[in-house]
Design brief:
Layout (H helix, E strand, L loop, with lengths): L2 H27 L7 H17 L4 H24 L5 H20 L3 E3 L6 H5 L6 H23 L3 H11 L1 H6 L4 H27 L1 E3 L6 H15 L5 H24 L10 H25 L1
Antiparallel strand pairs: 1-2
Helix pairs in contact: 1-6, 1-9, 1-10, 1-11, 2-3, 2-4, 2-9, 3-4, 3-9, 6-11, 7-9, 10-11, 10-12, 11-12
């Protein structure tokens, strides 16, 4: 694997670390099976690309994409809390709706950002190659997002969200508005996914309506791989594990697709993903069996 491919894998891994953090909030903290991310990821990309092509600053476009993702998550939560639609079905309905909404926002299947300003080319210092700077900037963004998330979920409201996911009945008995906490948690989760979509569009040179397909699988894979590498009940270590899992996942994907003797091609991406997730799920079981024997 070349240095260019290695840094590219790190860059994409860091982008999907934001997705994995969002998935961690919904699946692990809220216990809410959320498929909205397959729609909110391209939603963030679409909103960001449209705003940039209409002359808005990439900073404003990225914030707008993050807010759009939050709104998508909020609507999914609203369908579940207010209309009493089952959580999984509510997220599927929102995911389906977002496909059409994204096409409407973009006015077509895709929007290129070839010669338009992005966060990366505006912040890139002179004399530094873009393939070196982009992973560094993404690392800074992910670290800030992780620290902000760690802080938020240690506040009173963040603890209320965690309590809602752990035991909603007990949380209600303690005076927690569990419906409001689900809405807030889903908004934060999909805001991170929308942010990831915006950054992905800016690194890949455009937004596409189909770029969200399989996003939930990638997010779950990163969470599972990370928990296998660094199992912990502490929130700070759990979020760190998710970030590490996303980077490791993308690194092994890139390694598998770039090593010639394996013979894998781009169309084998889903196969490699399934194998990695299977391995990550089996490893903890093997560890437990080994521990029992000794």
């Amino acid at each position: 694997m070349t240095l260019f491919s290695f840094l590219g894998a790190i860059e994409i891994g860091l982008i999907f670390a934001l997705v994995a953090l969002g998935v961690f909030i919904s699946f692990r903290l809220l216990r809410f099976p959320d498929l909205t991310v397959d729609g909110s990821f391209p939603l963030g990309a679409a909103v960001c690309a449209v705003l940039i092509t209409h002359g808005y600053s990439p900073f404003v476009a990225t914030i707008g994409a993050t807010l759009a993702g939050a709104v998508a998550g909020l609507i999914t939560g609203w369908l579940n809390v207010k209309l009493k639609i089952m959580d999984l079905l509510a997220s599927i309905l929102m995911m389906i709706a977002l496909y059409s909404i994204n096409l409407r926002i973009m006015g077509g299947p895709n929007i290129p950002l070839i010669n338009d300003p992005t966060l990366f080319n505006q912040l890139q210092p002179a004399g530094m190659e873009d393939y070196v700077f982009r992973p560094l900037l993404m690392c800074a963004i992910v670290v800030l997002a992780k620290l902000a998330m760690d802080w938020f979920f240690l506040t009173e409201r963040g603890l209320a969200i965690r309590a809602t996911g752990t035991n909603a009945r007990m949380a209600r008995a303690q005076g927690v508005n569990t419906g409001g906490m689900i809405l807030l948690g889903m908004a934060v989760s999909n805001a991170l996914v929308g942010l990831a979509g915006a950054l992905f569009a800016q690194t890949q040179g455009g937004a596409d309506s189909s770029m969200g397909i399989g996003t939930i699988v990638i997010g779950l894979a990163a969470v599972i791989v990370g928990e296998s590498i660094l199992p912990s009940r502490r929130l700070i270590l759990a979020t760190l594990a998710v970030v590490i899992g996303a980077i490791v996942y993308r690194f092994f994907i890139a390694l598998a697709l770039n090593v010639d003797f394996i013979g894998l091609k781009a169309q084998d991406l889903n196969l490699v993903t399934a194998l990695l997730v299977t391995i990550a799920l089996v490893i903890p079981q093997l560890k437990r069996r080994f521990a029992k024997k000794h």
